């Protein structure tokens, strides 16, 4: 491992000394400040006497006029520098890359893109790595849509070096680019109608850059009227026959010489045209390699082209890349060399400039990044993000050393601090933008197979931020993925507190997905880490109540868990108390349903009335806490209680509000539950159009999880409405109740199972 340069180390120490000095200023106190101020005034007076005593009157007049102006200007400059804010991501979607004015040797392919954009809905630009597919697609988009407001850009290359982004992840990124909430889709194919709706008739051009497999974009609509879609990448799979890609191959000899001459100068290229041609041949026509050699030669004007040709000629194709890498690294200063080694060995492919500085332990890495970029060793992507050029990503050391662990620890702490800041700002636009860029990288940080020592709490803070973000976007699969990764890391580090939090999160997500058996398993693992019930955190009691309610009708145990949850909450946790009241109301409704089934109608109605009163309190608390998810859940349960109290108008009103809140919060599961509830209420009206009810249920099913009571109920209704498909819906409904097979189950699950079996 190389060492950081002396200059950068001195800058870092001076910066740290300045920060520490500023932190201790309050300790000086008022008396100390007055003493120092008085001493300064005395020294100033003596200085004026000394200066004025040796100057004439006219000289003093000349000094008196410009001196205050110069002092004010200097003060303004110092204050402006000290107050310079840390650059934040821009609001909204990612900006489209700058226009590329000169594209050497690609005029024919550029014309093909323009022509095919007019003929077909999707234009595919395909070529091996380093052939300039992104540059050509960006230039073509600027020509198809010269105004920035008509351009939309999605870079689908993810932070994982070894695995491409999944089709669902790509679809979510595209929806965000089109200002659509990504949480509205459960599968990639669900995004196609959203893309059509967002682009039709707008004249916009959507560019999907750095696509690696066709399966990532196979869900795209084949044509969008009044708009264009351009897809650029390497494509390891063949696109369908209906799409004829614009294929980029190696540059021709003349174009390659022109590109090399742009970097080394026409005069130098003309002095030895044979050597220039041989260098282009050695690069196999790759624009990336030609640019890299050109930049190195530009930094070494005294080296003859022929000597480099002789060195390259003796090497095989595989060895040429290592030779060029070695030439570039030899000229790097120590700080840039260390940054390159660290970046090339990271388990994540790219970081922003601030994270690169954290790796080095320096206030800034701008100079090192600029040096590496000048040699083509790294590239800036997505605004201020940097990644090692793909061809060189194996150039770093993967071995674990104390210095590598220290660098990784600094990086994790940096991400934890950023996640804290931006999670607190959600749902503000700048916080959404930051998480949209960084969420995949944060997941990679959590999923590192061997976490560095002493990073457990920082990883927990990263997971906290991701949990807030993914809940906001209703991305439950990513919530589960983050919780699993955190649990593995915490277990490896021996941090039981963080592991318990991760297990509870998995429990909560699995309950939403309708899998109480798996949820119970994770709850037990969390509970085993906290032997004494009195030491459980508040969330553990709440999940315990939810598990008990999903497992059966042990109402006393559920009530006890909710009491413990309320006792563990702080008095100022308004959102927590709103959740407690919502769960109390759910318990009362469940008790009422049981009594109703047993023929105790009056007692059941009293419980429904009590639940209604509790829910109005919960609704008020949720509104004060600014929790739209809790508000929607309270409205949904209010609709149910009013339905049981035979107040149809109130039930419809609350259900409409719940459905609207779920839609605004992009909670498709909650919205789908409301549709099932609305369908059930409509079925009680003998004159209701059954086909209309069936359409409601068809609309609900894609948003529901594969398992759960609501999913089984939807299939039960559809089986009765469409007798010709009753067997299909019976099997699907029973499959939705499979998580309760072999374990205790609530009475409503048993009743549903019986009704489905009779279809």
From TrEMBL:
Keyword Transmembrane helix in annotation: yes
This protein's UniProt keywords: Membrane, Transmembrane, Transmembrane helix
Transmembrane segments: 21-43, 55-74
Protein's name in the database: NB-ARC domain-containing protein
Organism listed in the record: Nonomuraea cypriaca
């Amino acid at each position: 491992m190389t060492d950081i340069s002396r200059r950068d180390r001195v800058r870092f120490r001076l910066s740290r000394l300045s920060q520490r000095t500023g932190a201790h200023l309050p300790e000086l106190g008022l008396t100390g400040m007055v003493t120092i101020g008085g001493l300064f005034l005395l020294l100033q007076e003596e200085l004026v006497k000394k200066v004025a005593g040796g100057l004439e009157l006219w000289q003093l007049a000349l000094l008196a006029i410009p001196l205050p102006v110069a002092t004010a200007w200097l003060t303004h400059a110092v204050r402006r520098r000290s107050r310079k804010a840390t650059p934040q991501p821009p609001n909204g979607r990612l900006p489209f890359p700058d226009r590329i004015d000169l594209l050497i040797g690609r005029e024919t392919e550029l014309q093909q893109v323009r022509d095919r954009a007019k003929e077909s809905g999707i234009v595919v630009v395909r070529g091996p790595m380093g052939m300039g597919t992104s540059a050509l697609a960006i230039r073509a988009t600027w020509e198809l849509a010269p105004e920035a407001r008509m351009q939309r850009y999605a870079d689908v290359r993810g932070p994982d070096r070894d695995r491409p982004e999944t089709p669902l992840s790509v679809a979510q990124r595209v929806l965000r680019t089109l200002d659509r909430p990504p949480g509205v889709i459960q599968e990639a194919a669900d995004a196609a109608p959203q893309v059509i709706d967002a682009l039709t008739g707008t004249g916009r051009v959507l560019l999907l850059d750095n696509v690696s497999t066709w399966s990532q974009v196979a869900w795209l609509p084949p044509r969008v009227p009044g708009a264009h879609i351009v897809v650029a990448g390497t494509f390891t799979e063949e696109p369908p026959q209906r799409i004829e890609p614009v294929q980029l191959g190696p540059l021709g000899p003349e174009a390659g010489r022109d590109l090399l001459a742009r970097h080394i100068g026409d005069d130098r290229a003309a002095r030895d045209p044979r050597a220039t041609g041989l260098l282009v041949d050695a690069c196999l026509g790759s624009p990336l390699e030609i640019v890299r050699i050109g930049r190195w030669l530009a930094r070494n004007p005294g080296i003859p082209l022929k000597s480099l040709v002789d060195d390259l000629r003796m090497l095989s194709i595989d060895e040429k890349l290592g030779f060029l890498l070695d030439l570039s690294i030899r000229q790097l200063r120590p700080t840039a060399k260390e940054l390159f080694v660290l970046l090339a060995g990271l388990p994540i492919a790219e970081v922003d400039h601030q994270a690169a500085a954290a790796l080095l332990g320096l206030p800034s890495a701008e100079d090192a990044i600029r040096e590496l970029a000048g040699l083509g060793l790294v590239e800036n992507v997505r605004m201020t993000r940097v990644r090692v050029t793909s061809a060189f990503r194996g150039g770093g050391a993967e071995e674990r050393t104390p210095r590598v662990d220290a660098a990784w620890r600094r990086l994790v702490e940096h991400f934890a601090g950023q996640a804290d800041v931006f999670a607190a700002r959600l749902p503000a636009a700048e916080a959404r933008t930051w998480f949209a860029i960084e969420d995949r990288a944060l997941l990679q940080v959590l999923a590192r197979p061997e976490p560095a020592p002493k990073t457990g709490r920082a990883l927990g803070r990263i997971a906290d931020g991701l949990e807030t973000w993914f809940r906001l976007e209703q991305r439950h699969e990513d919530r589960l993925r983050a919780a699993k990764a955190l649990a593995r890391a915490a277990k490896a580090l021996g941090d039981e507190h963080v592991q318990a939090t991760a297990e509870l999160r998995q429990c909560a997500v699995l309950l939403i997905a309708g899998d109480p058996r798996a949820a119970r398993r994770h709850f037990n693992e969390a509970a085993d880490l906290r032997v004494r019930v009195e030491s459980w955190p508040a969330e553990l009691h709440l999940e315990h109540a939810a598990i008990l309610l999903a497992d059966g009708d042990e109402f006393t145990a559920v009530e006890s868990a909710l009491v413990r949850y309320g006792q563990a909450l702080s008095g100022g946790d308004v959102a927590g108390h709103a959740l407690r009241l919502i769960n109390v109301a759910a318990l009362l409704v469940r008790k009422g349903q049981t009594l109703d089934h047993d023929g105790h109608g009056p007692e059941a109605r009293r419980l429904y009335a009590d639940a209604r009163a509790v829910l109005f309190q919960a609704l008020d608390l949720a509104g004060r806490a600014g929790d739209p998810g809790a508000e929607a859940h309270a409205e949904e349960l209010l609709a149910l209680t009013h339905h049981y109290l035979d107040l149809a108008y109130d039930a419809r009103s609350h259900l409409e509000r719940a459905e609207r809140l779920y839609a605004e919060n992009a909670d498709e599961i909650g919205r789908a539950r409301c549709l099932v509830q609305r369908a059930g209420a409509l079925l009680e009206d003998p004159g209701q159009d059954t086909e209309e009810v069936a359409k409601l249920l068809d609309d609900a099913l894609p948003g529901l999880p594969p398992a759960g009571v609501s999913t089984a109920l939807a299939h039960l209704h559809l089986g009765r409405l469409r007798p010709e498909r009753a067997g299909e819906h019976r099997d699907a409904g029973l499959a939705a109740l499979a998580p309760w097979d072999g374990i205790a189950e609530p009475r409503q699950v048993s009743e549903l199972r019986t009704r489905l079996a009779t279809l």
